[in-house]
Structures are given as C-alpha cells and as structure tokens.
Amino acid sequence: MPTPLLDNRQLGPEIQRSSNLLTNGGLEQWQRGAGPFTATGAYAADRWSLQIAGTDTLSVQRTTTSQDVNSNAAAWITFTLGTGAGSTAFLNVCRFADTPQMGTRTLSLSIRVWASIANAVRIAIYDDSGGGFINYSAYHPGNSSYQTLTATLTLPTGGTGVWALVYFNASGTFYIDNAMLVAGEQPANYVPLHPADDLARCLRYYEIIGGNGTGELIFSGYNSANNYSKYFYIPWKAQKPTTPTVTKVGPWTISGPVNSAAMESPSFSGCRINVNANIGEWLYYNSGAGSYITSECNP
C-alpha cells in the first residue's frame, strides 16, 4: 500500500520547510546599520520597519548577544506605551505585486519572541484588503525566555499584501528573532537560508554601492569643451522589483572643473551618473566610508 500524503495540518512545526515568504526572516541582515531606529516608517533590519501609534515610543537595535539559539543577530526592542493602545508594531510586509503566488492561500506565521512581562507582546498576521482580516497569537507569558508565537490566516480576495507584525501592549524590553511565514495551516519552525541567498533577497529591495572605503567610486574624465556631460553606468547587485529611489549619500570630492553630478534614469537593473564639467581633467569620487550610493525599492 502506498503511504498516504500528509495534510498540512498533520505536519509538525519541526518538519523543515525552507519556503519562507518573508525576506530576512532571521533578522540577520542590517544594511542600514545597527541602529537605534526610532522613527515611524523607518526600516531597521532589512524589510523590517517601525509602526508607531499615538505617543508611544519604539527603539530598535541589532543585538548579537541576546539572539535566539543558533542565530547570529536579533532585534533588540525598547518600547514605552503612550496613547497607542497596543497598535505600535515592528513589521515585515510581503506585497502581492512582488509575490503574486500568495493569492488567497492560507498562511501561517511563527516568530520567536523574548519578554519578561506577561501580556505585553503578541504577533499577528494581517491582510490589507480593507476588510479587517487579522489573526493574533496568544500573548507571550513573560517568563524571560524565547517563546514561539504563531498565527494563521486565510487570505481574502482584494488585498495588496500580507503583513507579519509584532504588537506591543506594555512598556518593556523585548527581543525578536527567526520569523517564518509559510503556506498552509501549520506554522513552521524557522529554517535559515544560506547567507548568500539571505543577502541576495535583501539586495532586491535595498543595496549600498561604494560604502566600504575612501575613493571606492571614482568617476574621471577630460573635457575639451565647457559645460560638457559624461555618463557612467552603475549596475545593481540585484534586480529590483520596481523602479528604485537612488540617493547619493555623504560628502563627495570634486577635483577639477566639475559643475554638477546627478543620478539619472534609474531602472530595475541600474542607473547612470551624469557628470557635467568644463575644459580640463577632473575627478569626482566618494571621499569617505560614509559616502556611497543607495538603491531602495520597497513595493
């Protein structure tokens, strides 16, 4: 007799499933730095952002000393309750425009959470179709240990994305790590990606060009006429899902008769820099470790 196929509900959470729909579910990648990040709407760990309600305050930092077992990093969160009434959250959003395969599936979310206060933090899975479709986990028991919180939701039609959220309901310090969003009614334990694959997912939405040293990006030329432009192509490390926002960050040094330098024509695969100069030899380069170009796309 052939072995019958297991229904998803019969799978235990320890059955390894690597199909995590979340980018940077393990909170290993922090391309914007270690923080603290405190502004609503700001990204902290890659693809994880802050949603601050009312007069609440939220601070998110990278920690490498209080992470979950077999993890390299986690989010260290300090929360102060004001008038937010439990609506302040740390979240990761999957947009259907970027992941259309989610459709109207049933999805299950699991997140490892540390708390020392009972009933202070819980997770939720939310569909933004406008119908208020959201399911919450139980609250963390507040026993000063990592606990796996889970929530499951069947997605309705008409939404544009599914949100994985960590909601805070009382002031305190919390640690968030190892989130897993999978198809089906059975939540799954977190399965890490290879570091190269994990970073590649993050680069699809945000990347830094030339941030590792002085003079890493050098644009140079010689002009035989005034007010003449030269163009240089800058390819992205990873193709973007939509047209990115390109920003030149930090002090850049001009040597010679440069009039201006502008980032132009961003696309899924790269952009160009237009350096306009007068007669003579010129250089335009990033002059410090804090000088670089960012390409950011958050659909």
Describe this structure in words.
The N terminus is likely disordered. The chain folds into 2 domains: 196 residues, Jelly Rolls (Sandwich), CATH 2.60.120.260; 90 residues, Immunoglobulin-like. It is mostly beta strands and 299 residues long. The strands form 5 sheets. It has a 5-stranded antiparallel beta sheet, with no helix packed on it. A 5-stranded antiparallel beta sheet has the order 2-3-10-5-8, with no helix packed on it. A 3-stranded antiparallel beta sheet has the order 11-19-14, with no helix packed on it. Helix content is 3%, strand content 43%. A hairpin with a 5-residue loop joins strand 16 and strand 17. It starts with 47 loop residues before the first strand and ends with a strand. It has 1 helix and 19 strands.
SSE inventory with pairings:
Elements: E1 48-51, E2 57-63, E3 74-80, E4 89-95, E5 106-115, E6 121-127, E7 133-136, E8 145-154, E9 161-168, E10 172-183, H1 195-203, E11 206-209, E12 218-223, E13 228-235, E14 245-249, E15 252-255, E16 258-264, E17 270-277, E18 280-286, E19 292-296
Antiparallel strand pairs: 1-4, 2-3, 3-10, 4-9, 5-8, 5-10, 6-7, 6-9, 11-19, 12-18, 13-17, 14-19, 15-18, 16-17
